[in-house]
User: Which sequence fits this backbone?
């Protein structure tokens, strides 16, 4: 297994995934320390998500490599509350800042492209790395829900609501 990369290409971008990349997304989510945090995985999951107009799969590229992906869901909800359903960075590319860049780009896309009024996610309580990232990006705890993959478990809910722009005070 290759160690995490230390070379961080300066070129970084996100874009919608293509159907030809779904196998690569499956490969990324099969990495160590990943599958235990995900619910349903596999090609059929990604094919359904890709075909669903209420979801968008976004890939992160660094240079010419796909280094991770996000799934946004709830894009057609009338209340404009979008779920950040899945964020995964390949094991090889962890620790280089790609996760934070991908996370920021996905949240920005939810607001800017999809008109979200709020973004939410759920996270397993033992996913300290994820919880720390989400909190540092302004996501606030908002209760728990049952974990559908673990009958005795719960998932923590976290929400992000953009702050209205401040107007300078006139004196």
Assistant:
């Amino acid at each position: 297994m290759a160690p995490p990369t230390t070379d961080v290409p300066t070129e970084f971008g996100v874009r919608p995934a293509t159907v030809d990349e779904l196998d690569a997304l499956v490969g990324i989510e099969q990495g160590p320390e990943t599958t235990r945090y995900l619910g349903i995985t596999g090609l059929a999951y990604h094919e359904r998500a890709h075909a669903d107009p209420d979801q968008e799969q976004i890939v992160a590229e660094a240079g010419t490599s796909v280094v991770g992906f996000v799934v946004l869901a709830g894009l057609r909800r009338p209340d404009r509350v979008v779920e950040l359903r899945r964020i995964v960075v390949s094991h090889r590319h962890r620790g280089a800042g790609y996760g934070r860049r991908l996370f920021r780009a996905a949240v920005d896309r939810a607001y800017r492209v999809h008109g979200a009024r709020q973004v939410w996610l759920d996270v397993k309580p033992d996913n300290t790395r994820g919880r720390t990232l989400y909190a540092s990006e302004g996501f606030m705890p908002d209760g728990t829900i049952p974990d559908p993959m673990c009958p005795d478990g719960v998932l923590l809910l976290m929400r992000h609501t953009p702050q209205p722009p401040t107007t300078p005070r006139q004196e």
Remarks:
- Confidence is low (pLDDT under 50) at residues 1-6.
- Strands lie at 12-16, 55-62, 65-73, 81-89, 118-123, 140-146, 154-160.
